[in-house]
Every structure is written in C-alpha cells, then in structure tokens.
Amino acid sequence: TDGRGIFRIYSPEMGNKMRRHHYLLEEMRLALVNQSFTLSFQPIVHVEDCSIDYFESLVRWNHPVEGEITPSEFIPIAEDSNLILPLGDWIIHEACRQMAAWYNAGMKKVRISINVSGVQLKHRILHPWIMDILNKTGLPPKSLLLEITESCFIEATKETITQLELLREEGIQIAIDDFGTGFSSLSTLADLPIDVIKIDRLFIEQANEKSKYNKILESISELGNKLSLKLVAEGVESAEQFELVRKLNIQCVQGYLVSRPETSRNVGSKVLKQNLN
Ligand code: C2E
Ligand code: CA
Ligand code: CA
Ligand code: CA
User: Fold this and answer.
1) Partners of 224 in the β-ladder
2) Which residues form the EAL domain (predicted)?
3) Each residue's pLDDT tens digit, 102-140
4) Distance 198 CA to ligand 3 centre (A)
5) What Å distances lie between residue 70 and 57, 74, 77, CA to CA?
6) Which of 131, 200, 217, 244 has the greatest CB tally within 10 Å of its CB?
7) What is the pLDDT of residue 6?
8) Residue 197 to residue 96: CA distance in whole angstroms
9) Is 152 within 8 Å of 184 (Cβ atoms)?
C-alpha cells in the first residue's frame, strides 16, 4: 500500500512508461502538423552483383528536445492510438512522391517499399487507398512494394487478403516482413498473396555452423525457392554473414554491410548516377 491504505496499481516504472507514452503521443500529433517526420531509405541489393533491387522507406523523427526517437518506440504508440492512420498516410504519400521523382529522373528499375501496419490493413480499403496515392503521385504500380509483417498476415481478414490480391493484379508486390518470428505455419506461405520473404534479422544473427538457426535458414530458403518467392536476408552486418546468405541461395540482402538507411538527398546523389537506364 502507499501508506494511506490505498493499493498502488502502478509501479514507478509503469508510471514513467505511461507518462512517456502520453508525452510522445501529444508530441507526435504536433510533429505531424509541423511536418517534422522524414523518411530514410535503405537499399536491398542482389547478392549476385550488389545491384539495388529496392529501397525500404523507414520513418525518422528528430524531436526538437529529445533528439532522434526510434520508430521501434513511437510506431507502437502511434498504432495504439490510431495516429498511425494519418502518419501512415503521410509516409506512403511521401515515399511514393519521392520515388516518382527518382523514377522520372531515370531510376526506372528500382522499387520502393513501405511498411504497412496492421491498423492500416484494418482501417483502410487497400486497393482504392493505394491506387489513389499512386494516381496522385504518378508512381507506376510496378515501382511499389508493401511490407507486411508475418504477425499481421496471420490476423488478416479474408477481405484484406482479397484487397492485397487486387493490388498484386495491378503489379504492386507484397513482402512478408520479419518472417520466422510470427509463428505462421509454413503451409500458409503457399496461400498468401506474396512475392517476397524477408527473413528476420534474428536468423542471420544466430546462424553459424553449430546453430539450429542455420538449418532453419536452409529450409526457409529451400521452401521460398520452391515457391518461386524472392528471398531477402535482413540485418547482414558482416562479410561472413553475406557469404552464408550467398551459399544458402538467398537472392537479396539488406544490412549495414551494404548500407545504413540514408537521407533522400544522399540516395539521390549516390545512386541516381549509376541507375540512369
Ligand atoms: P523493419 O521493418 O524490420 O525494418 C528494418 C529495421 O532494421 C530498420 O530499423 C533498419 O534500420 C534496421 N536495420 C537494417 N539493417 C540492419 C543491420 O544490418 N543491423 C541492424 N541491427 N539493424 C538493421 P528502424 O528504421 O529503426 O525501424 C525499426 C522498425 O520500426 C521497423 O522494422 C518497422 O517495424 C518499424 N518502422 C520503421 N519505419 C516504419 C514506417 O514507415 N511505417 C511503419 N508502420 N513501421 C515502420
Ligand atoms: Ca520492413
Ligand atoms: Ca523486417
Ligand atoms: Ca522488425
């Protein structure tokens, strides 16, 4: 009790956590109005020749007082409050706008990916929502890829799956993100409307000659290749990990070894020159 005979429901840590939660939520509302969010872009490259397959858009928030706040902290809070809806609308619009500009500048073969949250899957009617943004920004459907986590796929309704199928018919690709952490049965892979499997960073991190993770990686790769899905290994940080991925016939890698997420400006100046055809 707190000395007055009242049971304390919250520990001090929980109190701090809730204060932080409310604080960040209010600050995010402001940040959205003041346009303080930005996007960074990380390349996913082919193992074979290190050419860029696509860029993943990752949201960034530089808070005037707190400095950089990570998406792993603020995205879950935004999802709790449905603030992810206006924030997510801004993210997809901004990513498509940027990619359309790169496309028109000559970067025709590279695609852009956007992380779509489960809340968005639930509250947006995906096909008209995405097609409207593509129309407004002038980005061709084939230049867009949506990343949806394995756990969101498990909870997706039949209607959501139908909407995803409609998007695929337009030429938009779908990736299953953080694969291996969501406990979907492997057989569901064959039924889901997907083009790309992004193998969670955990597996690359844990894989070595002795580890069971290596065996799991092997079977994911075998299955993905049999189903003609493109495989991406996330979180490749070392040359050893890159070599392992190559041996396992995983086609693409993402990770600090190749590049950290970059500002649009850096992407423009570094990449555009090499992709002008
Ligand atoms: P994610 O979708 O799995 O994104 C990949 C994360 O791994 C990014 O972290 C990226 O910077 C990081 N990463 C890339 N290569 C490496 C590596 O070699 N080593 C390590 N340790 N990390 C690497 P980030 O940008 O901090 O984002 C974290 C998570 O926040 C994302 O995980 C995603 O779930 C969420 N997120 C980020 N941006 C967005 C967004 O625009 N919308 C939504 N809904 N979620 C987002
Ligand atoms: Ca992702
Ligand atoms: Ca991921
Ligand atoms: Ca993740």
Assistant:
1) none
2) 21-275
3) 999 999 999 999 999 999 999 999 999 999 999 999 999
4) 6
5) 14, 7, 12
6) 217
7) 59
8) 22
9) no
